[in-house]
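Q: What structure does this chain adopt?
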Amino acid sequence: MNEMSNKWIGKNTIRPDGADKVTGRAQYSADNVMPGMVWGKLLRSPHAHARIRSIDTSKAEALPGVKAVVTAKDIVEFPLDKSVMLGIQDMRWMCRNVMAREKALFHGHAVAAVAAISEEVAAHACSLIEVDYEVLPHVIEIEDAIKPDAPILHEWNQFEGKPSNIAGTMVLKTGDVEAGFAEADIVIERSFKTRPVHQGYIEPHACTVSYAADGRVTIWSSSQGQFMVRAMTSLLTGIPQSDIRAIPAEIGGGFGGKTIIYLEPVAVMLSKKSGRPVKMVMTREEVQRATGPAPGSLSTVKIGAKKDGTIVAAKGTFYLQAGGLPGSPLRGPVGCSFAQYAIPNVLSVGYDVVSNRSKVAAYRAPGAPLGAFATECVLDEIAEKLGLDPLEMRLKNSAKAGDKAIYGPTFGAVTFKETVEAIRHHPHYSAPMDKNPRPGVKRGRGVASGFWYNAGGESSVQVNITEDGNVLVTTGHPDVGGSRASISNVVAELLGVDHARVNVMIGDTQTIGFSNLTGGSRVTFASALVATSATEKVIGDLRARAAKIWNIDAEAVKWQDGMALPAGDNAGKFPPLSLKELAAKANEMGGPIGTQVQLNTTGADPGFATHCVDVEVDVDLGIVRVLRYTAAQDVGRALHPAYVEGQIQGGVVQGIGWALSEEYLYDAKGRVDNAAFLDYRMPVCSDVPMIEPVMLEIPNPKHPQGVRGVGEAPIVPPLAAIANAVHDALGVRFYELPMSPPKVSARLEEAV
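A:
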């Protein structure tokens, strides 16, 4: 590959899905219609915490136009005493999240569903279902949930021998942390708080399901993995996976929030009962109330360092909100918070805390931004007190090849220093700043770094040469971040054909081999790896066919610029054979040309990022505005640079929202008070500056194209970088997010 001229890899080729999306032709899940289709609607709990004594559906079933009613008894129940894992999801919790069983655990928890001839009839039927609730005390915040006298969500859950809302722990340790602190010249310990935030995908959850007379099920849905949809639906309905076909639609955003399911098993059972195809589409309010946000957190980080800035010990304690059922992403803060640093003594502990909120789901680098917020702010404070440049301190403590990561493996290549150096030498970092540009306004600059594991996993791809000499590639993962364009560039490069001749499509569960979720910054890494392998097999086949035509050995044939050529003068004199010519001879030379490759891919080296941000604070109004943002990241090799830049910029924007404006607000009854985009304050264009990505292309040596996952790392540093910049502006540190105007004003009043 290194000998090739690199005609397509690294080029901003036309996006294969672009025209359909901007013209409205793209087919999303909610666009699907079927003959005889009926509508499904969910009845949701009006209480934050309530025991379900009984459900009477008779009035709903008697309503004209109602075709089926489903409750928890129609969903497979997984006993509480035995874990059944599917990936990172425990089906004990999934069966209770899709449909409330013993209790409604949050306001908006689904308790029943109706299929009817229209949405209006289905909604009316839901209102006729009579649920006998025993309303129970509820608890929303972590600090309240872990109190000794807190209302207990799950009486069967024990922690330290007593019923508790702490549903699990994670501990990582290296060295002797107390001995390390004893060696330190400076020790700083601070506590931090963040609020749950939603992924904010534009497209709500939606599906259409057809349960056929022969018992076979077809699902069209918006998800980050059709194989996940098939497997979870199978487990929750009892229908064999072989009888379920899951077809991915275009996806209008996910960011981790569509790596689990909510509607599909319910729609399947409604379709089975009614004998009709069933369509279900969440409203925006349902998405906000009942799907999984990122967790809120309470964190305490303690770091000890020598006078020269060498970190000798670190301790992190991270409490994460799981929502109504266990399963917060503890490995994010526990494993990532100190990972980029070479610290001899570390203790990192996480606690999974249930409370009466919707069950959390993944959100870009799940949990890692929460830990980085705490760690990177404490590092900034230590550097300030020691009179050190914060970037110099990070450079001094950078992990290196051969260091053992706190989460287990020994690092190979570590490119963290390169991201720090990129910011240190960037004009942004040294640009002069007027810290008091006008009365009532102050400005500041902050930096922070971040780490994400990255992942490989199972992926499948087919590469087929069509009869007219073009190329069809089928992959097994939904395209969330531009994987179709990237794979098109790789295959075109290897085959030596014009990128426009390569068409990449996403297969369903019956047309392509198993492929894991789109998530964890794995898809471009994994799919490019299997696409490379499949394309090389096809090239080997093409060379063999040319050799057969010329009656020479296949080793005497080379593939170059889309043609088979004799490898040298000794191979003989033959006119080149193009891909189109070989495709035309396919039937007489062995049949169709193509192959499929399925691998459990490995070698996904971690991702590192360092960010620099300038902010302006209106002291009178408490408003923080981001003025300039630069994000440096090792991207391995940018197969399609515009998409890589977009990933970095998108992560930064989401981080800005997390830091400055986004949060769930609850009323006294435990109900979400801002369940709409008008009230849930995500950043809009006027809230963000031009964001400059600095892409460091340091090829991953474990990947044939040098690819390293890029989607997760960009969201890890912004929370701390912005908090550090606000401190630089005001001289006041903020330990709670978001730094919204009321909170900034209140903090400034405290500091007076």
